Amino acid sequence: MDYGYSLYLTGPEVFLSVSGLVLTLIAAWGGRNAGRLCTILAVAALFGASAITASQILGDTSVQGAEAFGGLYRMDAFGGLAKLLIYLASIGCLIVTPRFFAKGSEYRPEYPLLMVFGSVGMGMMVSAVDLMTLYIGLELSSLSSYVLASFMRSDDRSAEAGLKYFVLGALASGILLYGMSLVYGFSGSTSYGSIRAAFDGTLGTGALFGVIFVLAGLAFKISAVPFHMWTPDVYEGAPTPVTTFFATAPKVAAIAMTARIALDAFGNQVPAWQQIVIFAALASIVIGALGAIGQSNVKRLLAYSSINNVGFILIGLAAATTAGVSAMLVYLAIYVAMSLGSFVAVLMMRDANGDQVESIANMAGLSRSNPLLALCLAAMMLSLAGIPPLFGFWGKFVVFQAAVQADLVVLAAIGIAASVIGAFYYLKIVKIMYFDEPANVVVGKSEFSHWAVLGLCALVVSPLGYLLTIPLGMAANRAAQALFFTV
């Protein structure tokens, strides 16, 4: 084993790990006052990891992939594209975070440290080609997330969110471990390649249960129905910058991890898990849409929106084709921009005392008190609804197109019909902001950093985003080919 080459392949994770250790020392010496400095350095570290990842996936071997540490880790275009989305989403979340904690003086340097180490775990998740590596990366990411959810110790809602996330996350980890043990028992290996070879042919009942338990554990991480129950409570209770993080980077990591294990480890048994994914997709679309209709808190509404969007993404996975995975990655990239922009807009809604405004009723007449913010938020809502000419329409289009090409016409038809339900609550937000009598609650000012992130996201989801269709499609196709290279 060439350890030097393995360290090169794992360069983004090694760089972030070293950066995290350096930041830990700075935090220990600087104390609470080092929070802003650690945030700036964490953003720089994530930019560095993004540059390393970009240089790797532009190489000639990124489609075929290269394995590190004896087949525990694979560097390829699929994992590289997922990492870029993870790192960029984390950067956006860190940029808008300090202002949120400024009033209560609760911002500490541990926050960016947790984000950096969580990114290390997420990078391992999407590049893992062995169940052991997958679980280590998953737990590193999860442990960071549990602490972030309960970061505001003076807020009972934050403590409750952290506890709920921890308890249900532990349950999901137990289900996942049990599934892994069954898979290992019936395949004799934890390597994805060996599992795929062992599961070639008729799948026994015990092995089938292993596949089901693994997918059930992963469904919790992506908040797919019926393992979505934690999402609205955690999204509402956690600090809004943390909710922004949960809705973007970990979502990308969990979906990419699920796609890799389904199509790599269980790639010879597509009929065994395809029905499960189809059910989860349709149930997530319908329940996510219906659950959001009666919400009065915008963060809970966006939580159900997240569940709804996971359903659309899973349609691409259900296709189990190169086009399906490519469409899934395109949707993920657009979803990150839409979700990040939506939560940043929520972050910018503050009353005269500087407190966060989360009630949808208090957003009434926002177009008159803050027309630019209302315009950006309306663009996010309409894009999430998939209404052309906004870029969110393209994400839904390519996913449904991949499903039709895979002869899943009924699935695509139901998905299209159910997306109309989801459009209701997105349009409801727009209606409240533009046509209701002003509540005159959102009057607080926002920082330049918030406007910069929101403006960039609004630019991506606007019709100008269609300029990205060719490069994004090429990158997604290359990533999908890398995932199917060993199939």
Automatic annotation (TrEMBL):
All residue ranges annotated as the NADH:quinone oxidoreductase/Mrp antiporter transmembrane domain in the record: 128-422
Ranges annotated as spanning the membrane:
6-30, 37-58, 78-101, 113-138, 165-186, 198-220, 272-294, 301-323, 329-349, 370-388, 408-427, 448-468
Quote the InterPro entries the UniProt record gives.
NADH-Q_OxRdtase_suN/2, ND/Mrp_TM
Q: What is its EC number?
A: 7.1.1.-
Catalytic EC class:
translocase
UniProt key word Membrane: yes
Q: Where in the cell is it found?
A: Cell membrane; Endomembrane system; Membrane
One Gene Ontology term from the biological process aspect of the record = ATP synthesis coupled electron transport
Q: Tell me the Pfam families matching this sequence.
A: Proton_antipo_M
Topological category with respect to the lipid bilayer: Multi-pass membrane protein
Keywords from UniProt, A to Z, are: Cell membrane, Membrane, NAD, Oxidoreductase, Quinone, Translocase, Transmembrane, Transmembrane helix, Transport, Ubiquinone
Among the GO molecular function terms of this UniProt record, one is: NADH dehydrogenase (quinone) (non-electrogenic) activity
| Gene Ontology annotations for the cellular component aspect, listed alphabetically | endomembrane system; plasma membrane
Q: Does the record bear Translocase in its keywords?
A: yes
Its subunit composition reads: NDH-1 is composed of 14 different subunits. Subunits NuoA, H, J, K, L, M, N constitute the membrane sector of the complex.
This chain's function reads: NDH-1 shuttles electrons from NADH, via FMN and iron-sulfur (Fe-S) centers, to quinones in the respiratory chain. The immediate electron acceptor for the enzyme in this species is believed to be ubiquinone. Couples the redox reaction to proton translocation (for every two electrons transferred, four hydrogen ions are translocated across the cytoplasmic membrane), and thus conserves the redox energy in a proton gradient.
Q: Which family does it belong to?
A: Belongs to the complex I subunit 2 family.
**Name the record gives this protein:** NADH-quinone oxidoreductase subunit N
Q: Whose protein is this, by species?
A: Allopontixanthobacter confluentis
Lineage runs: Bacteria, Pseudomonadati, Pseudomonadota, Alphaproteobacteria, Sphingomonadales
Protein's gene? nuoN
